[in-house]
Amino acid sequence: MTTTTWNGAHRLLQAARARGIDICFANPGTTELTLVSALDDVPGIRPVLGLFEGVCTGAADGYARVSGKPALTLLHLGPGLANGLANLHNARRARSPVVNIVGDHATWHLPFDAPLTSDIDSFAKPVSKAVIHLRDGASLLAQLQEAFDIASGPNGAVVTVIAPTDVMDAKVADAAPALPAQAPGKDAVPDGDIAAVAAALSRKRPLILLLGADALTERGQRAAARVASALSARLLMESYPAIVSLGGDLPRLERLAYFPQDVLKQLGDATVVLVGAKAPVSYFGYEGQPSALVPSDRVIELSRPDQDSVAALETLAARMEVPALAAETAATPVVPSDTGGAGPLSPVDVVDDLIDRLPEGAIISLEGSTLGGPFLQRAYRARKHRVMTNTGGAIGQGLPCATGAALAAPGARVVSLQSDGSAQYTVQSLWTIAREKLPVTVIIAANHRYGILQTELKRADASIDGDVTGRLTRLDNPRVDWTALAQGYGVPAIRVASRRDLQQALEQGFDEEGPFLIQVDLP
Amino acid sequence: MTTTTWNGAHRLLQAARARGIDICFANPGTTELTLVSALDDVPGIRPVLGLFEGVCTGAADGYARVSGKPALTLLHLGPGLANGLANLHNARRARSPVVNIVGDHATWHLPFDAPLTSDIDSFAKPVSKAVIHLRDGASLLAQLQEAFDIASGPNGAVVTVIAPTDVMDAKVADAAPALPAQAPGKDAVPDGDIAAVAAALSRKRPLILLLGADALTERGQRAAARVASALSARLLMESYPAIVSLGGDLPRLERLAYFPQDVLKQLGDATVVLVGAKAPVSYFGYEGQPSALVPSDRVIELSRPDQDSVAALETLAARMEVPALAAETAATPVVPSDTGGAGPLSPVDVVDDLIDRLPEGAIISLEGSTLGGPFLQRAYRARKHRVMTNTGGAIGQGLPCATGAALAAPGARVVSLQSDGSAQYTVQSLWTIAREKLPVTVIIAANHRYGILQTELKRADASIDGDVTGRLTRLDNPRVDWTALAQGYGVPAIRVASRRDLQQALEQGFDEEGPFLIQVDLP
């Protein structure tokens, strides 16, 4: 390190490093170059380049979900932030801590309305728990401290930090002192509240425990299983968990359904106990269907997402005097007797073949319902693994989230289980995956249509074969060749249309040290 | 057409059609399906699907620049809008009329904070002159009328129209009546103001006419040339025109430089007459350099961008009694004596070979400085053509703008002259170009680096070879294979590294009825 004088950019990075941040997902421009240069001077923060900002923000989300730690992003003014917003929306819904650094013009240049000037605050607010404008070298540490504290609070949050070039360039007196680390952690559920819930539960049957947030960790699930066994309750997970452990000897979780009619049927007349989950609402509003899917008199809240659901469940189990349960019989994936053949593939075939071969400790980034639905129904049969889902519905989350997860968990196999339509929104992720040589196996369900839109049109008794409805829901003509795209970005790839080829491809992919893409042709 | 009852979506589209709108760039989701179905019932609006929203908004911008008419977009809630914001930022800076339709949840579903709920207004405001929430069937026509009027006002503008599903689904009494068309057009510069400018000009030397907006049309330039000849003034165009006619017998225009030092040198002590252009400001703020590049006492405004610069120039010329000038000698592109060879290519080689072969009436979408800078210096030598540039600096504008231009000008050859870094942000455009079989020749300057960032680092005496500065400005390792990406999206492609191969590829591309991509390897 040859730097002898420090500037605002150094101080920002030193403060981040002092708070344990070790990675920065960047797509910089001219206004971020002082920060780029400073990354060369401040050791310990790994720079990862994305060719598009949605790759960076989605990777920061995935990194946070797997590591529990915030990552930095580095984006270029309002338009760079704009390109990253969709995945910040998902990060917000996942309650992922992200410190989202957005460079800006020098403060004295802003009044001149140069081409790249825009209202960054207005872009940032919908996804950010706080938007902080760095003011000057003297205030910088306190402002960053605030940013890290909010991002790593009981609810993880996106905090957008706007870094003007003059503040980054300004000399500061010395290197940043160590920042007091904030003890991260969720708020405790008061004992009295747990006692009240226990009393209320004793009078209600049937019961469902709906698990979200940290209730979906291994320890949370085991405590939930104890409570459920004492109450003869069913265990459900929220529809779109940020991250959930599944398989192996973990309890089998039903997934909360998607369409309101299905949720109503699934829940029946049960009382729903919320454990780190929100009360079920319909994903979209449908005429004639309720938005809130459980009447409030059938909802009991044990813990909010910002509260410590694990401790609450363990306290509740202890209060009920439920002994630790024998773990579920560890699932032993069985290679199906149908080991191949050249017939066409179904989504369930793909999921079964994946589950049979999924390495212990794998992390799945799941986007799209074609494979995602069947996978979550059958994941209990796999070796123990973790699954991340699209929490906010902003598509283009799967590939970037897989990228961030692989960087957060070196040594783990990451599988990006992905629909072809949604994969397009952040297809540039493939380049970052190739560049960083990440062990990501990408499985593209290539049905060349927006399947969910065709399903919705059918549900509404509308045609899917009109000139326009056809044109706007089919992705054929031309069909995207995913193996060519992968090759273009430096990821080896193969296309399969039969079960035998799929099984071979999965084995080949899991043998690769780096990435591999499998285009699975589906009807 | 089998529809016998009309709903809000029909009415919206009927109103758009009545106002002359004939195209909709769409990336719909569940909340937009009523509008998708309605497009099947209301004839005359061509649906064009983009695989990413930035393709749709950039195409709407390009369509507007070439046709002068607004296009519709159709985007999916806040996250879909978010993905389209960067190119709406460019559209705003281009003063392009765009009616940006964003679907939303049913109004009665919004309070339940379903996953895709977000603050759409906050996302939309920075790029929109107005954000209009459609309220109900009864108000819809008046609200749309307002949207079209604002979008097509003297300054073209982006208007965001938020369309909740319940308002789109609601039955309306009848088909929409024809809307009174607003006479589009710019405001006239008052004669007295023109007289005052004429008087002021008579006392100032040297003079520069800085042309922007409609002063860059053919008629505007010819009138400007008359004025310039009477005043011995130089003719400059703004740095980033939305669209400018060049070549053939048009006057030769200098382009306003990029870096402030270069602009100060270029302008010298001249008085700058603004004709549809804003006073020059530095693109970024640099310590020690001014933001405003001309002192206010050396600026005279003939016309603002929202005013009729053509009429103002013609009135001024008439007042000065300048006769019509003989047209410039029409440039006859000369095939350079160096017709090939196998040596490495330079950007100037690429530009020269393109200019020599550029068909009359072509439209160039230009993004990135590697080829863009040399092209705009030498374009006067080409056959008459039009050039669109990146008006707002939000990168990822070139390919979508080319897409929209090709749809607005059937029969014209469109060239997307594109740097490789910026092409990545909306690479999905290639699929829409292939699907619509558009005559777009894409030329990718493949130098595998963010050249502008390396230039800026050098200007700041910073290293470009540090671990991080190297990593974040070089796009090698792996190098993107653009021919593979093009093939993946259905666009035929070739890679060239010598002048002879480039010339053959250009001729092959211009012979194609549909698209063709040329990856030009540059050092």
From TrEMBL, chains A, B:
InterPro entries registered for this protein in UniProt: THDP-binding, Thiamin_PyroP_enz_TPP-bd_dom, TPP_enz, TPP_enzyme_TPP-bd
Recorded family membership: Belongs to the TPP enzyme family.
Keyword Lipoprotein found: no
The keyword Oxidoreductase is annotated on this UniProt entry: no
Organism ancestry: Bacteria, Pseudomonadati, Pseudomonadota, Alphaproteobacteria, Rhodospirillales
NCBIfam families in alphabetical order: PRK07586.1 (NF005760)
Entry superkingdom: Bacteria
Molecular functions per Gene Ontology: acetolactate synthase activity; flavin adenine dinucleotide binding; thiamine pyrophosphate binding
Record domain Thiamine pyrophosphate enzyme TPP-binding: where: 379-520
Residue stretches making up the Thiamine pyrophosphate enzyme N-terminal TPP-binding domain: 7-111
Organism: Nitrospirillum amazonense
GO BP: small molecule metabolic process
Keywords carried by this UniProt record: Thiamine pyrophosphate
Protein name: Acetolactate synthase-1/2/3 large subunit
